[in-house]
Amino acid sequence: QVQLQACGGGLVQAGGSLRLSCAASGSISSISVMGWYRQGPGKQREPVATVTRSGNTNYADSVKGRFTISRDNAKSTLDLLMNNLKPEDTAVYYCKATSYDFIEWGQGTQVTVSS
After folding, report:
1. Which residues pair with residue 4 across a beta bridge?
2. What percent of the chain has pLDDT over 90?
3. Which secondary-structure segment (H or E) carries 48?
4. Any long-range contacts for 11-16 (C-beta under 8 Å, 24+ apart)?
5. Which whole number is the average pLDDT over 101-113?
6. Quick check: 109 and 39 in contact, CB under 8 A?
7. Taking a C-beta distance cutoff of 8 angstroms, is the pair 82, 67 a contact?
8. Where does the pLDDT of residue 1 fall: very low under 50, low under 70, confident under 90, or very high at 90 and above?
């Protein structure tokens, strides 16, 4: 099992970019799915993007074409590059590791997009 530490959030104007990064305390090479989720004000937590161990990615429709998820098994990191940010992207973003025998969440990092 690993512990996850997310960072990279901040305040950005609409149209801007941010890169979130999630560092794992141990190897992620055997973890089935790594992903980013977010929870906006007054909303439920929702998936943003996921990447499997084999590199297959999946994105929420609302971020397709703007966000890119990537995992580096050698460095045990998970990144989320967010371009063309919109005010509706404002949320606390969480990284998540899903393996066959555990699920681990990182602490959230706040992303605020001003109009």
Report:
1. 24
2. 97
3. strand 46-52
4. 11/112, 11/113, 11/114, 12/85, 12/111, 12/112, 12/113, 12/114, 13/113, 13/114, 14/85, 14/86, 14/87, 14/113, 14/114, 14/115, 15/84, 15/85, 16/85, 16/113
5. 96
6. no
7. yes
8. confident
